[in-house]
Amino acid sequence: MAQLSQVAQTSVAPEEIEQQLVAGLLAVHAHTSPKYLYDVLGSRLFAAICELPEYYPTRTEAAIFAQYEQQIAAAVGPASVFIDLGAGNCSKAARLFPSLQPRQYVAVDISVQFVAEAVSALQQQFPQIRMTCLGMDFSAELELPPTLDMHHRQFFYPGSSIGNFAPLEALMFLRRIRKAMAGSNSGLLIGVDLIKDKAILDAAYDDSLGVTAAFNLNLLHHVNRLLDADFRPADWRHRAFYNSAQYRVEMHLEARRELTVHWQDGGERRFARGERIHTESSHKYTRKGFIEMLQLAGFGAVQTWTDPDDWFMVCHAQA
Ligand code: AVJ
Fold it and tell me: Which InterPro entries does the UniProt entry name for this protein (predicted)?
């Protein structure tokens, strides 16, 4: 197998993870960070979601990349240090390699196990690109290796992952990315989901095969392992809907009956029947609103590409 030039993991202290999780579970409106959806099985279930007929974002974004490949490659420029935030199985970046021709590829993901496998397969396919793997929760802090060139940095944040941040957090995140680049030839290539009919959004997050339900419920297995807790997925149901007042899809887990969950060190929480744990928000934007946000974050010229229905947008923002 080809050797990766670098695999590194900046790990969050387990106590910190536990404190954050417990605080969310004990809150009046219980909530968990969407990052807990992505253990190894969660990452696989998300890859399956991307294949669902109802889940339009992946397919729509891919069509935009395919249709405007040359324009997008021209915006990004050649020989970039291509930094893939939330690389997952790396398939989105890999599809762009022939036209983008990056000099270096840095795959960043919270699940280093998952991404390292994908990158080592990719390295064989593209031996001329130097590849690096970073296991990091970049939503909290973007800690890139000091050896990495500050110039020619092209960040890649596809799939509308930005939607997991509330708008103000998204702005702060974009500012951090902007500050992590220097000079000319630096920029951000980002995919953003646009506001659309509620029925389309509801179906995209509550599919008929129940894959998104499994993805949401799998969070309970992950939390059980992290906290030594006793959540039983059968006691919970998947709820997902577009909240049009907040321009976001919300995912929740709803207790099917009254129950008490226990975890390590004697921690517990009672849930009434129908009570929910808010597990994810997926914010949607208008083209104009998102461009304004990029400008507030300090970016320069912005180019956008959309599909014929205006369901999804790909943006390139220069430093
Ligand atoms: C990975 C955050 C872009 O919000 O559409 C898909 C996650 N959750 N189905 C999204 C997700 C349920 C996805 N993002």
Answer: EgtD, EgtD_Methyltrsf_superfamily, MeTrfase_dom, MeTrfase_EgtD-like, SAM-dependent_MTases_sf
